[in-house]
Every structure is written in C-alpha cells, then in structure tokens.
Write a structure and sequence with these properties.
Rossmann fold, alpha/beta, single chain, about 280 residues, elongated, 8 helices, 11 strands, about 20% strand, 2 domains
Amino acid sequence: MNWQQAISRCHHDADPFAVATVIGTTGSTPREAAKMVITTTEIYDTIGGGQLEFKVIETARQMLESRAPSQRIDHYPLATKADQCCGGSVTVLIESFPVTATRLAVFGAGHVASALMQVLAQCDARIEWIDSREGVFPDSVSSNVQLVFREDPVSYVDELSDSHRCIVITHDHALDYRLVHAMLTQTEIDYIGLIGSDTKAGRFFQRMEKDGITAEDQARCRCPVGLPAVKGKLPMEIAVSIAAQVLSLDPVKASQIKPELSWKEIRQAFPPLELAKD
C-alpha cells in the first residue's frame, strides 16, 4: 500500500496517522523526494529506511499520542544525527492527524437530521447517519458522513464504540426508546441526545427507571437534546442547538492549537540555497 492509499484507508477507518515528507536534501541522501504514512502500529511507504526513518517514525508516534493535530520540521545531518554513512542531510516535515475529535452516530434521516448534516459537514466530526427507510437519504453528502441503511437500526448499536456520541431523532417514538435503552444498557457512551418535548422526556425517564436503568446511566441521555439557550422550532434552529451542544462536549478545539514553530525557526530548518553561477 503506498502513502496515498494509506491516507485514504486511515480516513475511512478513522485511524490516527502522521505523514512524513522529505522537503529538502543536501549532499548524498537515500531519497530526494519521498513520503511515508505512520500510524500507531503500521508504516506505509518509505523515506529511505535506516536510522533516519526510525527516528522519524518515533517522532511521529510521539506526536500521535496527543489528540491535537500538529506539525514540525526536523533537520537530520545523516552522519551525526541519524548515524548513517551518507554524508548529506535531510529535512523532514511531519504532520500528525489524530483521531477525529468527535465521532457521531445520528439515528434518523428526517428534516432535523438533514439540517444537522449541513452544520456538521463543516466541523471536525466523523458521522455515521443511520436510517431504516430506503431512499430517505439525500443523493450526496459531505465526505465526513457515512450513510448506513439498517432494517433495524438498533442492530447498529453493536458497532458503536464508547467514544461515540449519539443523536436519536427518528420518526418513531418506539424506535427512539429501543435505541436509547440499548445504548444505556450495552455501551458506556457518555452522551446520547434524544429529541423530544419535556413531556416525552418525562415519560421516557419514567420508563427507564421502571426498566431498571440507574439514575447514573439515565444521566447519559440528554432529552430534550440541544442547548436550551438556542431558541426556535425550525429544523435548522434545532440542528444548530444540537450541534452546539455536541461540539461543546469536547475540550480540544483546533482553533486553540498554536503552531509550534515560528517562521524564523522554519527558515533555519532549511539548508541554504546554492545560487547558480553564470
């Protein structure tokens, strides 16, 4: 698998990865232009092998330990820093792409869900959109949305990880309850947003108590879903309220991440250009 295929696979599987790119060389080096992809367990393609590659892999995996995306540029004099017999030097850009901050499963493909997809398409979220009705999904969706058709959406609960956040906005109250019950009893998912009125919420929580679901587990279900401060009953208004609540759950915000390197440091990492002589 080459580096392009590896990136595609990592995106599809929501597997955190880093990309190492040779962006400058001087003297004798293994490769002059190359890329490789590093995950926590695998490597794809090569930037030349040897200690250089070992050190890059080690650095990339250290970067992946953080949930925050980051970039760095390292300069490797091969004889001294990488302990290789080549006399040249290599400059490598390492970019880390940790697992998406929000993994979201949305059950139901009605008007509110369709509006929600328009909002979340622009956010750092990987979304599974599940419904039991054929032909209900739009013809095209954002690249971060996976469409899932299930005759019984409750069966999809078995495929959820505990890191998912879930939104239940189906067309069927009975299905809503079955989904919530399955998530609360079969998973440790910490956020299950359920659409509905205060009256629906009261009935559902009474039924949960009757079914033996503890108050601690009931607290993982938010009904009515969304931020109360966001008013309005139109689908897009409800969608904005839900999206705001979901995004507020994750403390890591990409907009708060500052570059590690100044422009001066970046310039220093590159070897000086040799000007052509007339």
